[in-house]
Amino acid sequence: METNQNMVMIVSMVDKSVADEVASQVYEIAQSKVSIFYGSGKTDERGFLGVRLNDEVVEIVCVVDHSMVDDITKLISEVGRMDELGKGYIVKIPSVTFMGPTPKAEPKADQ
Q1: Is residue 104 part of a domain?
Q2: What is the CATH number of the domain that holds 17?
Q3: Within a domain: residue 107?
Q4: pTM of the model
């Protein structure tokens, strides 16, 4: 396992119609795993932050390096159409310690 400290967790709620595009672009830029919580319309169903989800919204969670936070936040805001009233939110949780699998070393070519 690899431990990375001083990371930032970004949690966003976006309209279901743009969720796949948001998640895809976040993954492409950050090369970070992305978790997606889909609502199903059940009134007792909650996402990562405990906010009730319905079948029209999706909660997206990722952990990124501090240096990428502004770029990722801007991307989520633009693709998720956050400038439109009621289209979602973004929460940044600083100083997260992230533990994940250690990347495998590339095998050396025979000489």
Answers
A1: no
A2: 3.30.70.120
A3: no
A4: 0.77
